[in-house]
Amino acid sequence: MMRLTVLVLLMLPFCWAHAQDSLNNEVWVKLFVFDKTDDRPIENAQVISYETMQVFATDSMGTFRNVFNPSDSLKVFGLGYEARVVKVARFKTMSEGMELKLARRTYMIRSVDVPAKQELHLHLPEDIKMRKKSETPMALRSNAFASKPPVLAAVINPVSYVHYYTSKKERRKRNAIKEISKAKDQEKINVFFNRDVIKDVSRYVEGEKLNRFIVYCNVNLKVTSRDNPMIVKQRIHDLLKKFESELQARKNR
Hints:
The protein is of the alpha+beta class and 253 residues long. Helix content is 41%, strand content 14%. Helix 5 packs across helix 6, helix 5 (195-202) crosses helix 7 (229-251) and helix 6 packs across helix 7.
């Protein structure tokens, strides 16, 4: 922790010099989005940049942080709320951020029959898009930034920047997210790269030879969740020829 803190402190002069060149082009935006009726924080309210068309979202406390060009404008809305547009240039004089309260909005939707297991489609206005729910569990979301902070954040918000990289809790969250991602990838791989697939390709019966070939495949075949199942089978088949050749070479010794 001390090493990273010292490193950040050493980087600050460079970051400051870099920031001075880019401050005219980037503005630190900090938003607190609330329900206008009861002042409740609005989680997952969408924040859209008009210049880049990038879509962001507020955290569980209704907070959003990022940097944008001063010429940009942001559209902020949530499902069931009126949209509001704010100009990024306004944040140049708002170091503590801006509180934005969204008014509730009622939509009239058509009567629909929804069979079991069929997705419900709401007939909402075209500018309201249903946002996919974040796959990151609430307990694993960062308390500092919604995503990896830019270098400029080290100058504008050094406390949160250092906390993001030095906090054990934040590191545990990021590591847990990585492990969840690995587990999901492995689940996909297990569908098309497993004992039954290897057995089917090799035509080996259950026994020591099949077990040895499975180990051989695990050692020599690198499979990712993006691989095509048919190509994986072909690669297993190619490895089978090499495996048989090596077995025969041992017998001839």
